[in-house]
Amino acid sequence: MGRDLGPLLVGLGLVVVIVGVLAWTGALSWFGRLPGDIRIEREHTRIYIPWVSMLVVSAVLSLVFWSVRSLSR
Is the pTM here over 0.70, yes or no? Predict the structure, then answer.
């Protein structure tokens, strides 16, 4: 393992902690309720397909990984 792995792991840990604090405080309550997320609730059944929220997550992660890759060159 190289010496570059340590700071990357610390950075990822900090991101996980920040997202956890935001979820705990309710700052991410909008997530999963975006227009286009499918929610079907019946008496005994709940179906939830957050496909627009997952598209947002995919776009953000793609930008993050692209920027990390371009900065490491």
Answer: no
